Amino acid sequence: MEQIPFVRNAWYAAAWSEEIGRDLVERWICGIPIVFYRREDGTPVALEGTCPHRQYPLALGRLKGDQIECGYHGITFGCDGACARVPGEQRAPAAMRVRSFPLEERGGLIWLYAGDPGGADPAKITERWLGTSAWTAVHGTKILEGRAQLLIENLMDLSHEAFLHPETIGNSSVAETPIVTDVLPGCVRATRLMKNIPPPALFAKFGVSARIDRTQIAEFHPPSMVLTRAMAASTEPGYPTLNFVVIHCVTPEIATRTRYNWAVARDYALDDPAVSEAWQTGSSWIFDQDVAALNAQEARLGRLPPDHIELSIPGDAAALAARKLVKQLAALERREAVPAG
């Protein structure tokens, strides 16, 4: 599998709201070190995280009001990235500045636009389930020591559930049911409709023990989000219907390290802490299994010779379409970045 260049003209889930406060926090996004904090009024700030003077990490500095003072030579930067002070100098050089990144905070997530700020339209953020009264959610974060594309393709072909997650959400019905793949404008959708099948083990914790009709729709919204829309309806009366959306935010840190912010949102049992705990525990366990598998895959890719051949099967159609879409976006971004003439 070839490495696909970063797509920077996009919104990426940078952090959960509770992770960013008055302490300096460094995150890498698309190969860029970025320092996060909140101003005294609570507004989140994201600045390029390397001091341009001697490349010292700004996250190792300190906050002075709403400004960052570099911990090496005391050069201070404001929320807009402009240099506010150079110790011993009467005037701060205009070139002594760091980049400021557009942010959008909603539903408990802080989103960062990593590319040209002129394209930072918050309406392009696909997530709409977190922070609404009609849904409740649990969430967490995993770190993948591998390229982001591995996780995207894992999430677009859920047939692996039967083999990687048999104790929780997988059974043979998932792998044996064909996928219908649709490549839509700006989106790849993979649909699996499973009729009159036994429920997977995790569903029993939510009161579903009869045979079910199960719908599973994976949607890739490039370059960084996969949604798993799912429903399980009992074929017999008296059992609950499960309707939930898994929000997978795939944020590349560097070429072979990925931050995976995930959430499971549901529109039932909104005030039941036992249901929330079951989803929190079960989902975290499932995603740990995914990360372990993808870490092993990345380690193997790093040792294989460049001429190693990757083979695909018909069930890979959605994953391959997602890969093609990311490559097209990366290529377009690089063509547009080349000066004319």
Topology:
Elements: E1 11-16, E2 25-29, E3 32-38, E4 44-48, E5 62-64, E6 67-69, E7 76-77, E8 83-85, E9 103-106, E10 109-113, E11 136-144, H1 148-156, H2 161-164, H3 172-176, E12 180-184, E13 187-197, E14 212-221, E15 225-234, E16 242-254, E17 257-266, H4 273-303, H5 317-337
Antiparallel strand pairs: 1-10, 2-3, 3-4, 5-6, 6-7, 7-8, 9-10, 11-17, 12-13, 13-14, 14-15, 15-16, 16-17
Helix pairs in contact: 1-5
Protein architecture, described:
The protein is an alpha+beta fold and 341 residues long. It has two domains: 113 residues, Rieske [2Fe-2S] iron-sulphur domain (Rieske Iron-sulfur Protein, 3-layer Sandwich); 203 residues, Naphthalene 1,2-dioxygenase Alpha Subunit, Chain A, domain 1 (Alpha-Beta Complex). Helices cover 21% and strands 33% of the residues. A seven-stranded antiparallel beta sheet has the order 11-17-16-15-14-13-12, covered by helices on one side. The mean pLDDT is 93.
Keywords, separated by commas or semicolons:
341 residues; alpha+beta; Rieske Iron-sulfur Protein; Naphthalene 1,2-dioxygenase Alpha Subunit, Chain A, domain 1; 2 domains; 4-stranded antiparallel β-sheet; 5 helices; globular
Question: What's this, in brief?
Answer:
This protein has 341 residues and is of the alpha+beta class.
CATH topology descriptor of the largest domain: Naphthalene 1,2-dioxygenase Alpha Subunit, Chain A, domain 1
Series of H and E elements: EEEEEEEEEEEHHHEEEEEEHH
How many distinct helices? 5
Terminal-residue CA separation: 34 Å
CATH superfamily of the largest domain: Naphthalene 1,2-dioxygenase Alpha Subunit, Chain A, domain 1
The percentage of residues in β strands lies in 25-35%
How many β-strands, per DSSP? 17
Biggest β-sheet, characterized?
Answer: 7 strands, antiparallel
Structural class label: alpha+beta
Mean pLDDT: 93
Poorly predicted regions: none
Strand order of the largest sheet: 11-17-16-15-14-13-12
Radius of gyration: 22 Å
